[in-house]
Write a structure and sequence with these properties.
It is a single chain. By secondary structure, the protein is an all-alpha fold. Helix content is 76%, strand content 0%. 23% of the residues are buried. The mean pLDDT is 94.
Length: 130
């Protein structure tokens, strides 16, 4: 039930947890700046601290139910990130000029949802890598 040592998977779960705190802060600032004009903007803001807490708990208490909850949350994180990519790309597209470079610079950051997906996928890799 408890970890024996700081193995690679335990370290990666801890890293993913801390990364969700940092991503959550950034996402909250960006979405706050846009006044949360779409309800889906709340999903990464609310889920990031939940992902952090679950990962941190799993870092110190290796219970089977906690691992499955972490897997579920990371799968939802991958899905949430991909949905975010869609909304951010759509946000760039609807700006005046469409897919011009200036819209990528001043519009919604298209790379940030990919980062959310990548960190969630890293959490899944940490669980399933053998």
């Amino acid at each position: 039930m408890y970890w024996d040592h700081w193995s690679l998977d335990r370290f990666l779960i801890f890293f993913v947890s801390v990364a969700f705190v940092l991503i959550g802060i950034q996402v909250t600032m960006f979405h706050y700046r846009q006044n949360f004009h779409h309800k889906s903007m709340w999903v990464p803001v609310v889920s990031s601290p939940i992902f952090f807490a679950t990962g941190l708990a799993l870092t110190f208490y290796n219970a089977g139910w906690l691992r499955m909850l972490f897997v579920l949350f990371m799968a939802l994180g991958v899905l949430d990130g991909l949905v975010g990519v869609y909304f951010h790309a759509k946000g760039v597209r609807v700006r005046v000029g469409g897919w011009q470079m200036r819209n990528f610079l001043i519009g919604p950051p298209v790379v940030l949802p990919f980062l959310f997906t990548a960190i969630s996928a890293l959490g899944l890799i940490a669980i399933y890598w053998r």
